[in-house]
Amino acid sequence: MKKLFLLLILSFFSTQSFAAGCPDGSEPVKSVSADGTYYVYNCGGGNEQSSSSTANSSNANSNTKALAGIDIENDPNIEFFKPPQRPETIIDKYWGGLQWKIADFNNDGHSDVLYAGAMNVENVADNWKELESFSNLCGGGACKGKKPLPSLLLGDAKKQLTYSPELIIDNREDSGLYAGRQILVADYNNDKVLDFYVADHGIGTGALPGARDSYFLSQPNGTWIESSETHLNDSNLVLFDHGGATGDIDNDGDMDVVITGGNEYKGGAFWCWMNDGTGFLTKRQCGGILAFGLELGDMDGDGDLDALLGAHEFDKNIDFTGIVWNDGRGNFPKNNTTPLPQHKKKWGTIPEVSAADLDNDGDLDIVYSRAGWNYVGTAVQIIENLGHKKFKDHGIFPLVVPPADYIPTHEANEWNDYINAIRFRDLDKDGDLDLYFSNALSQKTNGMVLLNQGNFAFEILHPHGAAPNVISVATYEFYDLTIETKAPVSEEQKAEEQTLLDEFDEFEAQLEKELAAEAADAIAKRKAKVAAAKAKVAAAKAKRIAEEAAKSAETDTVDTEQSVEDEIAAFEAELEAELGD
Prior knowledge:
Elements: E1 2-6, E2 29-32, E3 39-42, E4 64-65, H1 69-73, E5 94-103, E6 112-119, E7 151-155, E8 161-163, E9 168-169, E10 182-186, E11 195-199, E12 214-218, E13 224-226, H2 228-231, E14 244-247, E15 256-263, E16 268-275, E17 281-285, E18 293-297, E19 306-310, E20 322-324, E21 337-339, E22 349-356, E23 365-371, E24 378-387, E25 390-400, E26 421-425, E27 434-438, E28 449-454, E29 457-461, E30 469-473, E31 477-485, H3 491-551, H4 557-579
Parallel strand pairs: 9-13
Antiparallel strand pairs: 1-31, 2-3, 3-4, 5-6, 6-7, 7-8, 10-11, 11-12, 12-13, 14-15, 15-16, 16-17, 18-19, 19-20, 20-21, 22-23, 23-24, 24-25, 26-27, 27-28, 28-29, 30-31
Helix pairs in contact: 3-4
């Protein structure tokens, strides 16, 4: 058994995988692009960077791999920990649960936490918990209340988190967040400091027209200013963008944004915000299919980012689960897709989707967060990438299962524990990626872990079964989650263990031989000592008999000799007992 210390970490620039090696069979050499926004892979051991300078060039045979948001989110180099689910100093600013991202936002070498959530609603319906859909949260109309800003908690060397509201600035007349559904972290303005785009689908807006998003860019003075009016060509685009992702979709070296919520019959279900390299984003419809869950990743290893979609499979209008392939120019034609297996009978709601290389074969595998109707029950679906646009469904992994006779009548039901974020780390340090889940409100699934056992087998670790131990307490508590588990043993490890066992057996045999030799020598020495003592006793006996005979010539010599002999025999017995003969 070994103890695994989950120092819950998120990080800053890393790639999940690359699909192909060099022509000579060697691995490409990784380096960072000149502007620091993406990784470059070169063959032949050289340090030259290969990049695409135009948005219209295809990268199917390029060594350049486009950076995606999942690379930033799952970078193994930044300390990852279990952040407070509802920090006391900020929770009053929000209604309901919070989304969070961990990253080193101020480049001081310590992990920080950025939170976003929904505004506190002043006109919420009295029966809101009984409503079938939260779209009617405020009686079918717009919700009213004070809209909060994102909250940044800065970490330090003492593992303390300090709320820093002075660093987040929003000067819009209508400032703040409506719902804050997705936090998309990337260096959009290429100043080597992370920025963030908040996809906001609104709250309680009747037919769900949605809300405008928020876009915070880093400044030279260490603050982040909401920059929609200066760095978006349409600062009032209102969408129900339940899904959102960031990545360099046109391989031009800067980070773009893709959000759902368009009309696929009028130009496409995706809106793509195209970055000009300075952080200025220009919107365009770029194809796609309407979906609830969206992530970007190079699913076919051709060097560009594809769109991984999760449906609301119970709804025939949002029922595509699968991949829309990038045409190499940052477009996602809806007729160029690969559908993936659905589970609409019981697990048809997909709140979130992500991807990582779970089997170390160089391509991205797929993980869907799933729930039932009205978000009842919680499960994940894991799909293996076989290469060449072929996929294998490893099925449903139930995590929270309601009673068989439970029928939910509204989304705020007691079995709503859906996973709203999926992250990947090698938590048990065995060489493969494990899965870490979070939920804004649930105690059942927030902090749940799937330990990767290899060959797409996973061990579920429930939060209550691996309770966090506080290792430092300050503004907030950092955690060191200790897990005991058996690590997989390779054939090489087995051979190494057998060699050690053989060496030990040989040592034991040699030790027994040496101990036997030492014991024989010790016995011989004891016997020699006894023999010498006996000889000495015999001499003493003869002398004593002679002396007694001379002194008592007229006494009964027989009786005297017997007395002496008895005394000497007793002495010999005592001597032999002491010598251990």
